[in-house]
Amino acid sequence: MKASRILLVEDERRVADFLARGLRAEGYAVDLAHTGPEGLDLARGGGHSAILLDVMLPGMDGRDICRRLRADGDTTPVMMLTALDSLEDKVDGFSYGADDYLPKPFAFAELLARLAALIRRSRIVATPPSPQRRVFVAAGLELDPDALTVACGKRRVALTSKEFALLELLAGAPGQAVSRERILSEVWGLAEDPLTNVVDVYVHRLRRKLQEAGDAAPVIATVRGHGYRLLEERDLAPE
Fold first, then answer.
1. Cα 176 to Cα 228: distance, rounded to the nearest angstrom
2. What is the reported pLDDT for 237?
3. I need a surface site. Which of 13, 170, 174, 220 has the fewest CB within 10 A?
4. Is the pTM here over 0.70, yes or no?
5. CATH at 104
6. Where does the OmpR/PhoB-type domain start and stop, copy by copy (predicted)?
7. Are 152 and 221 within one domain?
8. 100 with 92: CB under 8 angstroms?
C-alpha cells in the first residue's frame, strides 16, 4: 500500500527535522518546507494526504497559505501547529480553513493520532456508493461523509471536513433554525462563543459550494440574531 504523503511546513529546522524523522519512522512520506512561499508551492503541487502547517513562517503567514489553498478549491486537510494557543487564535485558524489546530508544545503521539484521524475523515473512496457506505439524503442533498462530498442531482462538490460537518448539522434539521452556539459546539467543539466571524465565513463558503452543486440546491438562510437554517427551494418565499 502506498504511504500517505504529508507536507510539513515548519521554519524551526530542529523541530522540522524531528517531526519529519518521526513521521517517516511511522511510515509516512514527508515533503518538507521551511518558508511560507515554498510551502504554498509544494501544497499547490498536490498529492498530499494532509498538511502540517506552522503559523509564524518567513515570507508568508501559515494562515494566509491556508486561505489561498481554500480559495483555490483545495480541500486537503490542514492541521496548524503553533505556539499561539488562545481560543481566539484557534478560531482564527479555523476561519482561514484549517481542519485542526495543535498548540505547541505537543506530544508527538497526539500529533500522530490527530493526523491519522484527519486523513481517515478526508480520504475519498473512489468506488460507487454501496449499502456499507453512509451516504444519506436530506433537504434534497446527497451527503457522503466518506468522500466528504455533497451532490444535488448529478453534480458532486468536494467539501472540507469542517464544511461538511456544518452542512450535515444544518441538513439534519431542514427548515429549522440552528443557533450559532450549537454550531460552534458541534462543529468546532467550542463551549463558548469567541465573538469571531468563523461561522459566517464557513456559511459563506458553503453557500457558494451549494450554488456549484446545482440551481435546485437548498439555500442557507440567516436567522437574524440566532443562527442559520437550510431551506429547500419550495420553502423560499416568492419575491
1. 8
2. 45
3. 13
4. no
5. 3.40.50.2300
6. 133-232
7. yes
8. no
Beta strands in the chain (DSSP E): 5-9, 29-33, 50-54, 78-82, 100-103, 136-138, 141-144, 149-152, 155-158, 178-179, 219-223, 227-231
- Grid cell for residue 196: 469571531
Tell me the mean pLDDT per 10 residues along the chain, length 239: 85 94 94 96 94 94 93 90 75 82 88 87 49 62 83 82 88 86 83 71 87 80 90 55
User: Are 217 and 201 a contacting pair, CB within 8 Å?
Assistant: no
- Report how many domains make up the chain: 2
147 assigned to some structural domain: yes
In a domain, 130, yes or no: no
> Residue 238 has what pLDDT?
43
How far is residue 89's CA from residue 8's CA, in Å, rounded to a whole number?
20
Tell the residue number behind the cell numbers 462543529, with chain if given.
187
For residues 17 and 118, state if they share a domain.
Answer: yes
Query: How many angstroms separate the CA atoms of 239 and 232, rounded?
Result: 15
pLDDT at 130: 47
Based on the fold, state whether residues 15 and 117 are members of the same structural domain.
yes
Residue-level pLDDT at 124: 45
Q: Is residue 198 part of a domain?
A: yes
C-alpha cell at 8: 510539513
